[in-house]
Amino acid sequence: MFPEAVSTFGPSIDGLYKAILGITGFFFFLVQGLLLFFLIRYRASRHPKAAYVHGNTGLEIVWTVIPALILVVLTIGSQRVWTQIRSPENFPKTGAVEAEILAEQFAWNVRYAGADGRMNTEDDVATINQLHLPVGKPVKLTLRSKDVIHSFFVPEFRVKQDAVPGLDSAVWMKLIKTGQFDIRCAELCGLGHYRMRGYATVESPEQFEAWLKEAKANE
Ligand SMILES: [Cu+2]
Prior knowledge:
The chain is an alpha+beta fold. The chain contains three helices and ten strands, in the order H-H-E-E-E-E-E-E-E-E-E-E-H. The strands form two sheets. The chain has a five-stranded mixed sheet with strand order 3-2-1-5-8. A five-stranded mixed sheet has the order 4-10-9-6-7, with helices on one face. The chain binds copper (II) ion (CU).
């Protein structure tokens, strides 16, 4: 159903999704089945005279309490995963590879700090639509926008984050598999929205370092 998850938190997001789909799917078929059953069972030819039913307090309590409990359980589960992924205290503190992504109509401008480890200096490495990341290391991305709201989306990473003008949005992830993945813009951002596509290459840390050097040399 989904493309393969290649980030460490992918399985928890997928687990939550499957749990919600399972619960809503079960009740969907239950309710639709009952509807069909009652339609046939109490059809006009067999029951020409309708019965007046005022209500059933016990039943109403049951069908209010059960969904409420399910929602509480789902909220706790979602909150746990959300905290793990998005809480500032759970962001990688040291050793993370950092990149800035400035979205614009209709491209992703990627910037790495370069050898001095500081952004916006002489030795920065800047690319367009080419995001390279090392496998097995924490990665932190800072998203910004030059013009309108865009949304950075790599389905395999299970990461989707809006890039909002005037706002820095940080996301982190740790990738567990190498490969080439598409970066899509998930926010309708103008006429060229459909071609706002980038490429994320996940490679070994050595390959990543070599690529950074080469990208700098080719600037
Ligand atoms: Cu866009």
